[in-house]
Design brief:
Blueprint: E1 5-7, H1 17-33, E2 56-57, E3 63-65, H2 78-82, E4 87-90, H3 94-98, E5 119-120, E6 123-124, E7 126-130, H4 150-153, E8 157-160, H5 166-178, E9 188-191, H6 195-203, E10 209-213, H7 214-223
Parallel strand pairs: 1-4, 8-9
Antiparallel strand pairs: 2-3, 5-6, 7-10
């Protein structure tokens, strides 16, 4: 049994488990060919992570994340994975990296997004989505520049996956600021807990607009029934 842990949580939707497992199998085998004892499977819940008595601490002894054994076993605390002392390889978002995670981990690679509308090589963009019929449908700009319909967004309820998400709130905030606006353009803001949850909230009328990274939006159009009511 490997002493390491690994995870690919960013797009690990239940409908995509076999695809994610196949991706990890390729990575695992590549590690093992280099003599690195990579774990057989990825960690998906806190129960898959070894306990860290007293919590996960930095070099100065400050607790950065709780002991995984103290957390709900069927959930996954991302920082518990990313900062785990036994971490070999994991997938994260640029938001947490910019907000401090980068000082504790080593960046070793980045996926390409060419297969998804809004992706160009290692760069990706977010789709601004609303209920179907409430805004015109436009394609992703070919040059990757932001296309933000301020008049359509004004006074709407904006929902986002998490405060540390680059695609869900950090990048949209920067794009609005570049246009002389801010998140105050929205009448209300709420945290949904995930891109998929944001799409469902819009479809159910609990929010009006969200920014969804291009790969998550492609996944939603494949697997999430609520996406049929969102565009």
């Amino acid at each position: 049994m490997s002493d390491f842990v690994a995870g690919l949580p960013m797009y690990d939707w239940s409908e995509m488990r076999s695809e994610v497992d196949a991706q990890w199998a390729r990575l695992r085998d590549a590690f093992r060919q280099k003599g690195i004892d990579a774990p057989q499977t990825v960690a998906r819940v806190n129960a898959d992570l070894r306990p860290v008595e007293g919590g996960i601490r930095d070099a100065a002894g400050k607790v950065m994340a709780p002991d995984p054994a103290t957390l709900p076993p069927d959930e996954l605390d991302f920082f518990g994975l990313w900062l785990h002392p036994a971490l070999l390889f994991a997938q994260t978002c640029w938001g947490p990296m910019e907000l401090g995670l980068a000082t504790h981990v080593q960046l070793v690679g980045q996926p390409r997004y060419d297969a998804f509308e809004g992706g160009q090589g290692e760069f990706y963009s977010s789709a601004l989505v609303m209920r179907a019929g409430e805004a015109p449908t436009v394609g992703s700009p070919s040059d990757g520049s932001p296309l933000i319909p301020l008049d359509v967004l004004r006074d709407k309820h904006f929902t986002f996956n998490s405060l540390d998400s680059m695609s869900g709130i950090i990048a949209p905030t920067r794009d609005l600021e570049a246009l002389g606006e801010s998140l105050d353009i929205f009448s209300e803001r709420s945290e949904s807990g995930g891109h998929r949850a944001s799409i469902v909230a819009i479809a159910e009328g609990k929010a009006d607009v969200a920014a969804i990274d291009c790969r998550s939006w492609a996944n939603a159009r494949r697997f999430e029934p609520a996406a049929e009511a969102v565009t």
